[in-house]
Specification:
The protein contains 1 helix and 9 strands, in the order αβββββββββ. The N and C termini lie far apart (34 Å).
Length: 125
């Protein structure tokens, strides 16, 4: 990401109530959008977020995301992401070699899972 792109991402994150973080090669934007939930986008990032009965969308590659609280839906777009979710209702994975683990389901014995791509792993931790 060049300096101009970094500045634009920082401005966008600030305008939308999010934050921009660049640590070495890790470049990640997180934000909360009313009615859409929390979003994290980037590469090589590591974050912990708290769900308050809302949705979370992760887009990017090689990220590590820990989600505390109760998430209605977790969407993962990209490759080689690792997501750990405390409580979740639905998991959607698009991409390759992503790993999503969950501890509790919002309803029933397991969350609804939808996947596309190859090498993805979704299961109870």
């Amino acid at each position: 990401m060049n300096l101009r792109t970094s500045r634009m991402a920082a401005l966008l994150g600030t305008l939308l109530g999010g934050t921009f973080l660049s640590l070495g090669s890790a470049q990640v934007v997180t934000m909360t959008l009313p009615g859409m939930g929390q979003m994290m986008s980037g590469t090589d990032g590591q974050r912990t977020l708290t769900c308050n009965n809302d949705a979370v969308t992760l887009s990017g590659s090689n990220n590590q995301l820990t989600l505390k609280g109760s998430c209605t839906q977790v969407v993962v777009n990209g490759n080689k992401n690792v997501v750990k979710v405390a409580t979740v209702g639905q998991i959607v994975v698009h991409g390759n070699q992503n790993t999503v683990s969950w501890s509790r389901s919002l309803k029933g014995t397991a969350p609804v899972v939808k996947q596309s791509g190859s090498g993805n792993k979704v299961g109870k931790q």
